[in-house]
Write a structure and sequence with these properties.
- The chain is of the alpha/beta class and 407 residues long.
- Among the domains are: 208 residues, Nucleotidyltransferase, domain 5, CATH 3.30.420; 45 residues.
- Helix content is 44%, strand content 16%.
- It has twelve helices and twelve strands.
- The strands form three sheets. A seven-stranded mixed beta sheet has the order 5-6-4-3-10-12-11. Strands 7-9-8 form a three-stranded mixed beta sheet, covered by helices on one side.
- Strand 8 and strand 9 form a beta hairpin.
- It is extended.
- The termini are far apart.
- One of its GO terms (cellular component) is membrane.
- This is Ectonucleoside triphosphate diphosphohydrolase 7.
- InterPro entries: GDA1_CD39_NTPase.
- GO terms for molecular function: ATP binding; GDP phosphatase activity; ribonucleoside triphosphate phosphatase activity; UDP phosphatase activity.
Length: 407
C-alpha cells in the first residue's frame, strides 16, 4: 500500500469503509482503516516481540536491567532491559531499539534527525503511568533488503564493467566465453544480468572477502535514490548492555543452509560462509539433491546465498556497527513456538488505554444504524409478530386459569 500513490490509497480505504460493514458483523469505522508508515510498523514489531518475551512486566527483578531517563524532569528509573529488532525482507531493512537516554544527542543536526526517528509512547494503564514510557529509535531502509540489494549489486557491477571495458578496450562480460568473474557466486556457477538492453555474463569465483569489499559501496545507497546506511543518523547504542533479535532474512541466512540459526557468532558464521562460497556449484547442487540442506532451501537460495551472507555481514558490522564479538544477537523465526508479527504490537498499542466508553457508544450507534437499515415491511412484520405472541400468551394463561377454577 505504501508504494501506491495517495489517491489510490484513499480510494481503497474508502472502498473498505463502505463494504466491510455490509459483509461482516463486527465493529468497523473509518478510523479503523489506515496505511501505516514504516515507522509505525517498526514500533508495532518492537512492541510485539518485547511483549511475548515478557519485558514489559517490571514486577520481577531481573539481572538484565537498564536505567531509563524520563522526560526533561531529570527523573529516572531502573527496569527490565528490552530487546531490539532487526528485520530484513526482500526489499527493505528495518531496525528498532529502545533509547534509554537522549543525553548523547547534542548537536542541532542530531536533534532534528532524532525527532523524526525516535518514537515516544506510553504502554501503561493511563498517561500518568510513567513506568511504561518508552523511547524507541526506528528506521526503515528501502532498497536494502536481500533481493533488492542483489539487483542493486548487479546494476553496480554492470555499470563498473561497462566503464572498465571502455577505459581498457576490453570485452569482459559481453559473452559467455569472457564472463565477469563474480566473487559473490559459488565457483563455476553461470548467470546473466539484463538491464536496459545490456546483457552481462557472469561466472562465480566464490571469493568471500572480495565479495564483501565489492558490496561496500552499496551501504551508501546508489545515485541518491536510496538512503545511506552508514551516514544515516543512528541513536546511541550500548552494546555492552543490549540484546537484539534478527528476523526474516537474518534467520533464513543463518539457518536454511548453514544450520546456524539462533545465537549469532560472527567468527563461526564467517568460517561456514567462506567454506560454502568456495565450493564448486556442481558440488552444492549435488548436496542439495541429496537433501543435506533445510527443506526451506531451494536452488534460488543456494544460487545467491553467498551474496546474501556477505550482505548480511556488511549490514550488521559496517552499517549498524555491531562489534564482531557481540554475543547478544539471536536470529529467530518463532519465539516460544509462535510467530511474532507487527500486528500483535498494533493491537497492544491501540488498546493500551482501553477506551471502553467510546467503544460502547460506537456500538450503540452502529446497532441503531443497523435498525434503521431494516426494511419497512420487515419492521412491521416483526411488530405484528410480537403482538401475536403476547395475545397467544394471554389466551393460554386465561384457559389455564379457567381449568383450575373450582365449579
Amino acid at each position: 500500500m505504501r508504494l501506491l500513490p495517495e489517491r489510490q490509497q484513499a480510494a481503497i480505504l474508502e472502498d473498505l469503509v463502505t463494504n466491510v460493514p455490509l459483509e461482516f458483523d463486527f465493529l468497523f469505522s473509518k478510523s479503523h482503516a489506515e496505511v501505516i508508515s514504516g515507522k509505525q510498523e517498526g514500533v508495532y514489531a518492537w512492541i510485539g516481540i518485547n511483549f511475548v518475551l515478557g519485558w514489559f512486566d517490571h514486577e520481577d527483578e531481573e539481572d538484565a536491567v537498564v536505567t531509563v531517563a524520563l522526560g526533561d524532569q531529570g527523573k529516572s528509573l531502573v527496569r527490565k532491559r528490552t530487546v531490539g529488532i532487526l528485520d530484513m525482507g526482500g526489499a527493505s531493512l528495518q531496525i528498532a531499539y529502545e533509547v534509554p537516554d537522549t543525553g548523547a544527542i547534542s548537536s542541532p543536526q542530531q536533534d532534528e534527525a532524532a525527532k523524526s526517528l525516535l518514537a515516544e509512547f506510553n504502554l501503561g494503564c493511563d498517561v500518568q503511568h510513567t513506568g511504561h514510557m518508552y523511547r524507541v529509535y526506528v528506521n526503515t531502509f528501502l532498497g536494502f533488503g536481500g533481493n533488492f540489494s542483489r539487483q542493486r549489486y548487479e546494476e553496480h557491477v554492470l555499470n563498473q564493467t561497462y566503464v572498465h571495458n571502455r577505459l581498457h578496450n576490453q570485452q569482459t562480460g559481453l559473452s559467455p566465453k569472457m564472463p565477469f568473474l563474480d566473487p559473490c557466486l559459488p565457483v563455476g556457477l553461470e548467470d546473466t544480468v539484463v538491464r536496459g538492453g545490456q546483457t552481462l555474463h557472469m561466472r562465480g569465483r566464490g571469493d568471500w572477502q572480495a565479495c564483501i569489499k565489492l558490496l561496500q559501496p552499496l551501504l551508501a545507497g546508489s545515485n541518491g535514490s536510496h538512503a545511506s546506511l552508514v551516514e544515516t543518523y543512528k541513536a546511541p547504542m550500548d552494546f555492552s548492555n543490549s540484546e537484539f533479535y534478527g528476523f526474516s532474512e537474518f534467520f533464513y541466512c543463518t539457518e536454511d543452509v548453514l544450520r546456524l540459526g539462533g545465537q549469532y557468532s560472527a567468527p563461526t558464521f564467517t568460517s561456514a560462509a567462506q567454506e560454502y562460497c568456495s565450493q564448486r556449484w556442481e558440488v552444492l547442487a549435488q548436496r542439495f539433491r541429496g537433501g543435506l540442506y533445510s527443506a526451506h532451501a531451494d536452488q534460488h537460495r543456494l544460487k545467491y546465498q553467498c551474496f546474501k551472507w556477505a550482505w548480511m555481514y556488511q549490514v550488521l558490522h559496517e552499517g549498524f556497527q555491531v562489534p564482531l564479538d557481540y554475543p547478544s544477537l539471536r536470529t529467530a523465526q518463532l519465539v516460544y513456538g509462535r510467530g511474532v508479527q507487527w500486528t500483535l504490537g498494533a493491537i497492544l498499542y491501540k488498546t493500551r488505554f482501553l477506551p471502553l466508553g467510546d467503544l460502547r457508544q460506537e456500538s450503540i450507534w452502529q446497532a441503531h444504524a443497523s435498525w434503521l437499515r431494516l426494511s419497512f415491511v420487515y419492521k412491521h412484520s416483526l411488530f405484528f409478530a410480537c403482538i401475536l405472541v403476547v395475545a397467544l400468551a394471554i389466551v393460554l394463561y386465561l384457559l389455564r386459569l379457567r381449568a383450575w377454577t373450582p365449579p
